[in-house]
Design brief:
By secondary structure, the protein is an all-alpha fold. The chain is about 60% helix and about 0% strand. It folds into two domains: about 110 residues, no CATH class; about 120 residues, no CATH class. The protein has 13 helices and no strands. The longest helix is centred in the C-terminal third of the chain and has 55 residues. It is elongated, with a radius of gyration of 26 Å. The N and C termini lie far apart (about 70 Å).
Length: about 290
């Protein structure tokens, strides 16, 4: 006879998360990261409940596994910097707002992704022209053209808007766009057996930024498409790449600062209205008892 499994008492169901709304010791990086990770998982679980009516919502918002896992790590790694940046004008408001919870929440909102934005903003095209400009300034444009694909059948599938560039021919720009879009095309899927199996599922999104190789951090392989991209990148001075990276990071955290300035104003107003409502309810109850309980 099969033995009955002993049921654990006081055990929470798997996948049940609560928001990190308790007081956080911001002087302890581990506690801050743990609170942020908990809040991230809580928000993610709420979005997963939408899958019944929106089957592709997680993968379209880059919140499927392992993309969500990578995003969670990035969010936790940055929360200390975010806290230091906003603490002077954006303190925690008990029962209303904490930086760790808010930072996790805005990074799980299924609004848009870089891959979704690519269709209307032509981010890859901008990157291609930037690279060509800096390669030319470095006197290496001939080497770059020699590395770019020449096959017209390949390049005719590259979608770019009608444009005029005073420096670079359209076919050169189109070839650079192709090299960027297909930089990880030849990469083999690496990682655990489970992660490889998940990566092979059909993907409804055209991936140019968060492709499988990038997500699994296995894009640095000795394959033709990746070698071509890295050779093109090597034609740009390292200081130019560092300056562009620093500029992007600066603008990203400038947006974060603006967001929290607006958010704390809203939260303070929310707290004020809650306090006024509580006073109103208290006064109303006292009058009720005065009139009807005498």
């Amino acid at each position: 006879m099969a033995k009955k499994r002993k049921q654990k008492t006081n055990s929470k169901p798997k996948g049940n998360y609560e928001p990190a709304d308790t007081t956080v010791n911001y002087d302890d990086p581990k506690q801050l990261e743990a609170a942020t990770r908990k809040a991230f998982q809580y928000s993610l679980e709420n979005i997963r409940r939408l899958e019944k009516d929106h089957p592709n919502i997680l993968i379209q918002a880059d919140l499927d596994s392992p993309r969500a896992k990578r995003r969670s790590k990035a969010v936790c790694a940055c929360v200390g910097r975010v806290r230091e940046m906003v603490k002077d004008f954006c303190p925690d408001i008990p029962d209303v707002f904490t930086v760790s919870t808010e930072w996790a929440h805005i990074n799980t909102m299924p609004i848009t992704t870089y891959d979704n934005q690519e269709g209307g903003m032509y981010l890859i095209l901008g990157a291609a022209i930037w690279m060509l400009d800096h390669i030319k300034q470095n006197g290496k444009i001939r080497e770059a053209i020699n590395l770019l694909p020449k096959d017209e059948d390949l390049l005719e599938d590259v979608s770019i808007p009608t444009l005029y560039d005073p420096v670079h021919r359209e076919e050169v720009i189109r070839a650079m766009v192709y090299a960027l879009e297909q930089r990880n095309r030849d990469c083999e899927i690496q990682g655990t057996r489970r992660s490889r199996k998940k990566a092979q599922r059909p993907d409804p999104v055209d991936r140019y930024f968060m492709d499988v190789a990038t997500v699994l951090q296995s894009q640095h392989q000795e394959v033709a498409s990746r070698k071509r991209f890295e050779q093109l990148l090597s034609l740009i001075p390292q200081e130019d790449i560092a300056a562009a990276t620093a500029h992007y990071e600066e603008k990203l955290f400038e947006w974060v600062r603006c967001y929290f300035r607006c958010r704390v104003t809203y939260c303070k107003r929310e707290q004020e209205l809650d306090e006024r409502r509580a006073r109103f309810e208290e006064t109303a109850m006292k009058r009720f008892h005065t009139v009807f309980c005498l």
